[in-house]
Specification:
- This protein is an all-alpha fold and 1097 residues long.
- 63% of the residues lie in helices and 2% in strands.
- The chain is built from 47 helices and six strands.
- A two-stranded antiparallel ribbon has the order 1-2.
- About 7% of the residues have low confidence.
């Protein structure tokens, strides 16, 4: 049964267990509740939450239990919010067990923490709820357990953080309760409820997150909070839970400036205690320790730099502070270069970077140079071959880069050794980016942006010198494929796309202050997200945009994208690439370079659409002309068409070519048009205009990916380059192939919508619409079942599921707060049939009365006429008690239509399989048909063959790989079978031959190419299967050449071109047969000369 039905059965069983007190039930209530929770979280699709699951969970019949859950969607939340809050409040106020109350409070956390849930809580009466829980917080221990009271305080803190105007009147009372709890349970130790103390610290942390509810550092509250935090940093022996210590470290990490007055006097105590947490075996505690330690060192450096240097006594104190830290860091850096001591080294590297600015006033040049040499030595070891476990310390890289940046900032001119170290450690970062834990990526990018800003301040030339090397390395890393441990090989650009978007577009938004990390990650080091934005950031982005575009064009020129014939030597040239690509006999000279280029193209298309940089307009001419030249030199490389298409999308978005089409065709241009024609933008337009016209004609010779790429390019910016009549064929072709490849359908539909935009003032007349709109029919005649649900075996046994562990749940929660780019998820280029149908219906609605052209194609529906009026095609279906004879001739036209043009892939594949089976039935029945004469005569399926064979050839070049593989093999088998004919001009053999020849003369490049292949196969097997008497003169060759002569003399150029293509295919077979050469050579030569004469005229 389905997952939803099984869930309903489980809830009924649970209801039977607990509603009537049925203690003798065969089911365990706890196990059932676990199974229900697991199924809801893991097995139910998101679409079913609002439709079915919540309706089951929240009904009165099954609403006797409640468990910690997640709010799945806004619609579900809005529909069931009253029921949800009523149940939660009921459990909190009247529940018997503290665990049940805490579970209900967890749900309240999920609702009111809008940063994570993204819910609109305006519809709730937050003020009444806040006042209700304020009253609950003062209840005695007998009425409210301390663990529940702590969770209530946290809920009040969450509401105060998100609704400070509601909490403001009571905020002093909340802080007083928290301080009282900390004093009683932590400082005076009148009682020892560490959970309540931890909740009090978490509440303070939440309050401090709100800018409207700050605490005065000099107030009594600030002093008491500092005392509680310092006390919490004492780690007793035998403690297994660290909620209190984590809360204290989190406060220091995010709000250490609140304790600035105490840092100079208590620096040793704080530093020593926090350092213990850094080396703790608990990973979460260790990460928070490093984050707190880094914040502490930065703030101490700030306090020291702001101190008054005129007071000699104070200077002595400052020198002691600085000397303590510098000596300590020096000692740590002198330790052996091994991974085990690297955590200590990392603390020293950060500390030296942060303290250099203030220590310059107290250290001489020799001491500073010594520190620099130590940093260079450590960085040399880090990226050297002797460090075989670099991956274990990748979490420290962001802080290292920031520390080296702070160190180098204090020099007027960056020393060469330091510059090289920064360069190499940056390269380690970019090379390891895809392998780096996800939560290290954002800090690392922020550190890199701060490094770029520092280098720009040192001089634009310094930054360009750095970026030339760094971007080249980064781009190579972006284009390669990597293989991670335990995973398949994947593209690096998927992960590195986030890096490029962050440094080339907008600045990174600051993350939430309270970030929890998955325990499966490596060492995660917190970094200062509050990086000052340089005033010259716009100029900095321009420099980075220049270096990026230059790097991309440079890498493209470095790649070897040449092609060669199969079996050809690398240094031999290909004479006619277009001819060879039609025969499928080309392969890359350097496959690795093609893989790099393919990844570069995918990355370019993903990045450029989101790259909003005004500097990009100045690169349109350079980039466009460079890519056009490369494309003209290598016309069979589809990546260039895709790159130019994406560039054209950006150009259209900025209306860069607006009005240039009128200037080009103006016989008497105005003064304004003359001025525009002198601009660089018009020069860019002229370069691309001729290229686009050339691609429009070349696309008729291409197939498959080349054709799709050319269509994308043509439809990317159609208004300023083509007339309506020129767009008819590309639009029809795109809609035809869009049935199986939806991006082409989306591009075609977008073009049609642009043509109807009143801004362009185009007249889409009846002739244009009647040519294009009928292609939309195939998308609209298929019904999509949106709510179809996947069903399993009806006899599926009940399974016992294990609920996810805490680390697995935390993993999901952490990543739900991150963007798709950050976790390496790219947008899906495919659009569902349902969405396409909706867009098409909207487009037809905007057409109004013009939409009647949808039915005026002028073509007769071939699938409405029976191909077998005498019902020759029958199949027997054996039932247990009878044999049913079913006539398939009447259904065959519709089967062929669905196989060829159904947008629903399931229907398409089923129709292809049925057609495949029916063809085998016809061939098999014909094989055993008795012949009463030696003369050739039509079989009973002859009329069907004439209809079915063309469909089979089209399916052999279909976009869908299943249909292509299925019918390519079947067509080859049929050619082998029908060329073994005993009579001259056998009707079935001639029917197949004529269909193949017509396909070879088609305007569709793919069908033309495949038709020529079929004729080549026909020739090969006709010669191979000739009898001994006809060995010297195969009779099928005479039939072939007779029809080939007619095509060579045909006034239609496509017929003559198809005949030439066929002869080029069969020439190698023809020249091996001496009898054929003697009899037909002069005839063929005469016909070819005549065909050539017709072409010249």
């Amino acid at each position: 049964m389905s997952a939803v039905a099984l869930l309903d059965a489980y809830i009924k069983d649970l209801n039977d267990c607990i509603s009537n007190g049925n203690v003798q039930s065969i089911y365990d209530p706890n196990a059932l509740a676990t199974d229900i929770a697991t199924r809801v979280i893991s097995e139910i699709s998101t679409d079913d939450y609002g439709h079915k699951v919540c309706a089951i969970l929240f009904t009165e019949l099954y609403g006797h239990f409640y468990r910690k859950s997640t709010v799945y969607s806004t619609a579900v939340y809005l529909h069931y919010k009253e029921h949800l809050l009523t149940n939660c409040c009921s459990f909190i106020l009247r529940g018997k067990h503290a665990r049940a109350k805490c579970a209900a409070l967890e749900v309240m956390f999920a609702i009111f923490d809008t940063d994570k849930s993204k819910l609109d809580t305006v519809v709730l009466n937050v003020e009444d709820l806040f006042n209700k829980y304020i009253e609950m917080a003062v209840l005695p221990v007998t009425a409210l357990p301390q663990t529940v009271k702590g969770r209530v305080l946290e809920l009040l803190g969450i509401i105060a953080m998100h609704y400070p105007e509601i909490a403001a009147p009571q905020i002093n009372a909340i802080k007083r309760w928290c301080l009282t709890s900390l004093n009683d349970h932590l400082i005076d130790q009148k009682s020892t409820s560490l959970e309540l103390a931890a909740s009090a610290l978490k509440t303070f942390k939440l309050i401090l997150n709100s800018p409207k509810l700050r605490i005065d550092p000099d107030s009594e509250e600030g002093e008491k909070l500092y005392s509680a935090v310092v006390t919490s940093l004492k780690l007793p022996e035998g403690v297994s839970r660290y909620a209190l210590q984590m809360a204290a470290l989190s406060i220091i990490q995010n709000n250490v400036q609140l304790f600035s007055d105490h840092l100079l006097s208590d620096y040793k105590t704080l530093y020593t205690r926090i350092q213990i947490f850094c080396e703790h075996q608990n990973r979460m505690l260790s990460r928070l320790g490093y984050g707190a330690l880094e914040s502490l060192l930065k703030q101490i450096a700030v306090v020291l730099s702001q101190s008054n240097n005129n007071d000699s006594n104070k200077n002595v104190f400052l020198v002691c502070n600085i000397k303590y830290f510098v000596e300590h860091f020096h000692k740590l850096l002198d330790e052996k270069d091994v991974v085990e001591s690297f955590r200590k080294n990392s603390v020293a590297i950060r500390g030296i970077g942060y303290f250099l600015k203030v220590s310059k006033n107290f250290l001489d040049n020799a001491q500073i140079n010594t520190l620099m040499q130590l940093l260079v030595k450590k960085s040399d070891w880090f990226y050297s071959e002797s460090n075989s476990e670099t991956y274990r310390v990748l979490g420290h890289l962001p802080s290292f880069i920031q520390a080296y940046t702070h160190f180098a900032k204090e020099f007027d001119t960056i020393p060469l050794e330091m510059f090289i170290s920064i360069q190499k450690i940056s390269e380690v970062f970019i090379v390891s980016f895809a392998r780096m834990p996800i939560y290290n990526r954002r800090p690392g990018i922020i550190a890199m942006k701060e490094l770029f800003q520092m280098l720009y301040v040192k001089g634009e030339g310094v930054l360009r010198n750095f970026l030339d090397t760094f971007f080249n390395k980064a781009m190579v890393c972006t284009c390669i494929d990597i293989e991670l441990p335990g995973q398949e090989k994947q593209h690096s650009y998927v992960d590195l796309l986030y890096f490029w978007k962050s440094i080339l577009t907008d600045t990174i938004e600051n993350p939430d202050i309270d970030i929890e990390y998955d325990e499966s990650d490596e060492d995660v080091i917190m970094i200062d997200f509050n990086t000052n934005i340089n005033e010259n950031e716009t100029k900095l982005k321009d420099v980075m945009c220049d270096c990026f575009m230059d790097t991309v064009l440079h890498i493209i020129k470095m790649l070897n994208l040449d092609l060669k014939k199969v079996g050809q030597e690398e240094n031999e040239a290909v004479e006619d690439e277009v001819l060879y690509v039609m025969s499928g006999s080309l392969q890359p000279v350097n496959p690795k370079d093609f893989i790099l280029f393919q990844n570069l193209v995918e990355f370019w298309c993903l990045l450029l659409k989101d790259m909003e940089n005004t500097r990009l307009t100045e690169w349109f001419y350079i980039t466009g002309s460079s890519l056009v030249n490369q494309s003209l030199q290598k016309p069979l490389v589809s990546g260039f068409y895709r790159m130019i298409a994406q560039l054209m999308v950006i150009i259209e978005r900025q209306r860069y070519f607006r009005g240039f089409k009128d200037i080009l065709h103006a016989s008497h241009p105005t003064q304004d048009q003359i001025e525009k024609s002198k601009s660089n933008a018009y020069n860019t337009y002229l370069v691309l205009h001729g290229y686009m016209k050339d691609i429009l004609h070349k696309s008729q010779q291409f197939k498959d990916e080349l054709l799709a790429s050319c269509l994308h390019l043509i439809l990317s910016y159609p208004i300023e380059f083509f007339d309506l009549t020129e767009l008819v064929v590309p639009l029809k072709t795109a809609l035809h192939f869009g049935i199986s490849y939806s991006p082409l359908a989306v591009a075609a539909l977008a073009t049609l919508e642009k043509l109807e935009d009143p801004e362009y003032k185009l007249d889409t007349n009846a002739n244009f619409l009647s040519s294009v709109l009928p292609s939309i029919n195939e998308y609209l005649i298929v019904k999509v079942n949106v709510n179809q649900e996947t069903r399993g075996d009806i006899n599926e046994p009940k399974k016992r599921f294990k609920i996810r562990s805490a680390s697995q749940r935390q993993y999901t929660v952490n990543r739900s707060d991150m963007s798709s780019d950050e976790v390496g998820v790219t947008d899906n280029a495919y659009t569902s049939l349902e969405e396409l149908q909706l867009q098409m219906m909207r487009y037809l609605g905007r057409l109004g009365a013009k939409s009647k052209q949808l039915l005026q194609s002028g073509e007769v529906r071939d699938d409405l006429i029976s191909w077998d009026p005498k019902k020759h095609l029958k199949i027997d279906i054996p039932f247990p008690n009878a044999k049913a004879e079913v006539s398939m001739g009447e259904m065959l036209p519709r089967v062929c239509t669905l196989a060829e043009s159904s947008p629903d892939r399931h229907i398409k594949i089923a129709a292809c399989e049925l057609l495949h089976s029916l063809v085998l039935v016809m061939i098999g029945n014909s094989a055993f048909q008795a012949k009463d004469t030696r003369n050739a005569r039509n079989s009973r399926y002859h009329d069907l063959y004439l209809r079915v064979f063309p469909v089979m050839l089209k399916l052999a070049i279909d976009v869908d790989q299943v249909a292509r593989d299925m019918f390519r093999l079947l067509n080859a088998q049929i050619i082998h079978w029908l060329t073994n004919n005993a009579q001259y001009e056998n009707p079935e053999t001639i029917a197949l031959l004529e269909v193949c020849l017509e396909a070879a003369c088609d305007t569709n490049a793919g069908l033309r190419d495949y038709g020529a292949d079929c004729v080549q196969e026909f020739t090969k097997w006709s010669i191979k299967q000739s009898s001994s008497k006809l060995k010297n003169n195969p009779m099928n060759m005479k039939s072939l050449l007779k029809r080939l002569y007619n095509f060579m003399a045909n006034p239609n150029s496509s017929k003559r071109f198809g005949a030439s293509l066929v002869f080029n295919r069969i020439y190698r077979l023809f020249r091996e047969e001496e009898s054929l050469i003697e009899e037909y050579t002069l005839e063929i030569l005469g016909q070819l000369f005549f065909s050539l004469k017709l072409s010249e005229s």
